[in-house]
# Entry
Amino acid sequence: MSAMEEISRPQPRFGIQWRSLGNMRELGLVLIILALCVVMSFASPYFLTWTNFRAMLLSFSIEGIVVVGMTVLLIVGAIDLSVGSVVCFSMVVGGFFFLAGLDPWSASLLAIAACAAIGVLMALCVTRIGLHSFIVSLAFMVIVRGLCLAITGGTPLSLFSLPASFKFIGQGTVYGIPVVIIIFAVVVAIFDFLLRKATVFRKVFYTGSNEKAAEYSGIRTNRVKFFCIVLCSTLAGVAGVIYMARFGAATPTFGLGMELNIIAAAVIGGASLKGGSGTILGAILGMALLSVVSSSLILLDVSPYWQDTIRGLILLAAVSFDHVLHNRKKAGAPRPAGQ
# Structure
């Protein structure tokens, strides 16, 4: 029996228990978010207002598009620390071509293509040279940020002359619902469905779970990794274009520290840093939790310095929890015959 057939067979009872644990984790996040909302409703009269909830939805909707790409990347066993810089690069490149005389839609397509090209370069470093994605993305985080500063000369690009038709994707509404939230919901729905149902995307899980077994079963794991890295950078480029339309500007320092929120949301939602597990729904719930926490800290007038400390502690707790779960899963796995 091939390794692929073995993977495709119904999993033993312990496997079902761990999938149930993943569902419990998502349910737990929902309960935590609801509990925080109840507490904050008493702590601040401004929390349970449409204005506040709209602000929270807008704040994590665009980042949520990047979280989708990061979740897929973590499942395959890689990571990308450059997403904040790539989002900024998309804004800068799009703004640069627009100011050079190109229409905003063509400029945006070039910006997204440039971000995809960055993903290709990173993927080549990982799959051809054999470097770890952590080191590669760390290097590109600095390189791409430097490119943003070089293109703009360190000065923000003013894009207030963007046409209303383009600004609509970042500022418009449809029946009172911001277009940004609609785009976010569509992206989440598509990739959540693909990860759960599409056979092609199952290779992402197989590669992240056991790369050697996936190779023996005929999966070209380097191609899978290549695709996931490029996908993450491309979605970051899409997010950058939406940010450009929303703010009407391109600031070369935009997105600093964004990777912290993105990775934290994915890990809190159940995506393992060791690969092989994670869901889009869980990552979005993680993003929602961080957004509620941030909103709460602002309404409670907590110092921005302490806000960063608290977010860092939340990330540390999520990573620690993921590490404990991974070790317990390994301990609970049945040993091969003869051992």
